[in-house]
Amino acid sequence: MTLEEQEAGQQMETEATPQAAEGTEQQAATPDLTAKLERAQEKATSLASELEREREKATDYMNRWQRAQADLANYKRRVEQEREQDRKYGPYPLFLELLKIQDNFQRAFETLPVELREFSWVQGVALTYAHLDGLLRLHGVTPFETEPGQPFDPAAHEAVTHEETDAYADGAITAEYQRGYKLHERVLRPALVRVAKPKAAGTAAQPEQEQEAPQASGE
pTM to 2 decimals? Predict the structure, then answer.
């Protein structure tokens, strides 16, 4: 081999060496990039999962907050209703006692002789009676009507005696002994009444006699 050929071969080897080194570096870098890409994908997947968990937590917190708000609103509404009930029906026992006083006034005026009604002290007592009646009505205490022949209602009437009669249907009211009252829409005190029942078979008709009314308590 001539000297020129040897120099040409060395030059070719010198030029090929950087290219070979560059190819080796590229081959070594390919697995490293692949590993980085895989790690990046794993991290992205992990972040997506974490984001989904946080979204679920946020949704759960929102649902709990909404339920808490609803519970609070219901509680406030219930407390307000209880306050309203206490305001309307709290004085229930007091009104019952005041009705006994009103009954005494009513019976006194029903039996008051006519010649005494023009006395000033009687008129003063009448004004006190009227004031008591107005005070009770102001707070929702009102009488309800009970008429003879009206069906007996256990929610509004209390039967103190029965009467055998054909003049009224079985279970109908024949007389009222004590007036009943309501407190707003509830029965405060039932009316004391006499209730009809059929005559026993074979019993001769007898003239109806007025039975003595039972005395109300509190006199």
Answer: 0.61
